[in-house]
Design brief:
With 308 residues, the protein is α/β, with parallel strands linked by helices. The protein is built from 12 helices and 12 strands.
């Protein structure tokens, strides 16, 4: 029978690399997804997790058909592991900012449809010309990257910030309307009111975007409607263009599409702000401060890129 209090099997200090692999598995739910996040092989994640379990003397996670699930012991240690991670990231940020020179990389995360618009706006080219020792790189995923955990340095996001610890400012508005293709409208007619959406095929979000405000709005105004689902904004845009159904979309990416029509004026309930956000300990680092200050000075161009 296992003793109530686990003992570390040797006096060596816990390896941070083992700990961060454990945290990745806890967040992603599988060793494969954790490996992708960390940029290593799946076998490396499994090896690191096993090494930490051997050192601690108990299993941290068990494999299930749907992925890895933390044991009771793993759940108990998780907040302590996160505290260690926060301390390591804070140390790294302080060390990076100590030199005071404006150089390095800014990892910018934003919705995938925004990337080409930012590039086309010329903002990044002008920033690189002003600060040639700083490079801006895009970091993307099918979920919001965690700025607090160091997955990216700066984020452009629509909607009120969910993490109150982040700092930044509102830079634009995110405006959504309902769209349909010319072909769909010709075959099924144009709804005359929001209430008539229930009689049409609709397209919403699933996966990591299942909780998006557009889904909540559709369930409110069209309960019981037939809804096809896609896991990304670009996927929903493609589905609407193909004539599958109607969907709420950002006006920025849908208005320029020649094959789409805006069914109603923009939906007030779906309007949110665009925010430029970062970790509070990064905000005054030279490379991040330079990027923030430059982008704020380019607000007209940024708003055009974000709002059309």
């Amino acid at each position: 029978m296992q003793r109530r209090n686990a003992k570390v099997h040797n006096s060596a200090m816990i390896d941070w690399n083992d700990l961060r692999h454990f945290l990745a598995v806890a967040r992603e739910g599988s060793t494969l997804a954790a490996a992708r996040t960390l940029g290593v092989n799946q076998s490396t994640v499994q090896r690191r997790l096993t090494a930490l379990e051997q050192q601690l003397g108990r299993a941290l996670a068990n494999r299930h058909p749907t992925g890895y699930r933390l044991t009771e012991f793993g759940e108990m240690l998780l907040p302590y592991a996160r505290s260690v991670e926060d301390a390591v990231f804070s140390l790294e940020r302080r060390a990076e900012g100590f030199a005071g020179n404006i150089a390095g990389t800014v990892r910018l995360t934003c919705p995938e449809p925004v990337m080409p618009r930012l590039i086309g706006s010329g903002i990044l080219d002008r920033f690189h010309a002003r600060h040639p020792e700083v490079r801006v790189e895009f970091a993307t995923a099918d979920r919001y990257l965690d700025l607090w955990r160091g997955e990216a340095d700066v984020a452009l996001r629509s909607g009120e910030p969910e993490d109150p610890r982040l700092v930044g400012r509102k830079v634009a508005d995110s405006i959504w309307a309902v769209y349909g293709s010319h072909d769909y409208i010709q075959r099924h007619g144009r709804p005359a009111s929001v209430e008539q959406l229930v009689d049409h095929s609709l397209i919403g979000f699933d996966g990591s975007m299942a909780g998006h405000r557009a889904n909540k709005w559709l369930s409110t105004v069209a309960p019981g409607a037939t809804i096809a689902r896609n896991s990304s904004v670009l996927g929903v845009l493609s589905a609407v263009k193909s004539g599958i159904g109607l969907a709420p979309l950002p006006t920025t990416i849908a208005d320029p599409e020649d094959t789409l029509e805006q069914i109603f004026p923009p939906v007030r309930e779906l309007t949110r702000g665009w925010y430029l956000l970062t970790h509070p300990e990064l905000r005054h680092e030279p490379r991040i401060a330079a990027f923030f200050d430059f982008v704020v000075g380019e607000l007209p161009a940024l708003r055009t890129a974000l709002m059309g």
